[in-house]
């Protein structure tokens, strides 16, 4: 197994174990063993379990952001663009249930340092903040503090994806998908 393959095996195994057993109950030895690498190899790539967790969190957040960014359609209608992004984000969750379960468990967890969460929100998902600022400048979105708005939207995303992961048949139901977007949108619009 080459070095990149070993590193990916460690990340894939950590993802599975962190979701199934939890961060604190998962040892680095169990990750290395299930990944088929020596513990020293794990520590070569990741100096600590916390470093491994942070890398995994940022890598999955980047994958998510890349998928959402690729779906952006600048139609000139902010609500239409937001709806498209919302549905793309939910679709990503449904297409990547293990990674979304990881987000469900760790996005707001003290297991992820606030600096790492802020990096994910402000750097990796910075385009979302830019869209919110654009909406505020156009007078379409409420003039709430941007960081609070972003965290609130993130919480709504986690709630909607939790609902759809628990009720996958509802994801295909237009009434439910439209309602999930309306809840998200109405929390931001200027009222």
From TrEMBL:
The record's annotation in InterPro entries points to: DNA-bd_HTH_TetR-type_CS, Homeodomain-like_sf, HTH-type_TetR-like_transc_reg, HTH_TetR
- Which residue intervals are the DNA-binding region? 27-46
Which residue positions does the secretion signal occupy?
A: none
Keyword DNA-binding set for record: yes
**Domain HTH tetR-type positions:** 4-64
Xref: PROSITE patterns: HTH_TETR_1, HTH_TETR_2
List the keywords (alphabetical): DNA-binding
Q: Any transmembrane segments, and where? A: none
Q: Which PANTHER family match?
A: HTH-TYPE TRANSCRIPTIONAL REGULATOR RUTR, REGULATORY PROTEIN
Name of the protein = TetR/AcrR family transcriptional regulator
């Amino acid at each position: 197994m080459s070095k990149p393959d070993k590193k990916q095996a460690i990340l894939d195994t950590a993802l599975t174990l962190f979701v199934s057993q939890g961060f604190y109950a998962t040892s680095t030895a169990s990750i290395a063993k299930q990944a088929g690498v020596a513990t020293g190899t794990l520590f070569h790539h990741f100096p600590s379990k916390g470093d491994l967790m942070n890398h995994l969190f940022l890598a999955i957040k980047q994958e998510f952001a890349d998928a959402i960014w690729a779906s952006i359609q600048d139609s000139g209608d902010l609500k239409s663009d937001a709806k498209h992004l919302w549905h793309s984000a939910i679709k990503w969750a449904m297409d990547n249930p293990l990674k979304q379960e990881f987000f469900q468990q760790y996005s707001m967890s003290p297991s992820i340092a606030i600096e790492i969460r802020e990096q994910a929100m402000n750097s990796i998902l910075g385009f979302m903040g830019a869209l919110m600022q654009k909406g505020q400048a156009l007078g379409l979105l409420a003039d709430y503090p941007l960081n609070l708005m972003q965290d609130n939207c993130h919480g709504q995303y986690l709630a909607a994806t939790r609902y759809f992961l628990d009720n996958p048949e509802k994801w295909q139901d237009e009434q439910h998908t439209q309602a999930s977007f309306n809840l998200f949108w109405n929390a931001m619009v200027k009222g």
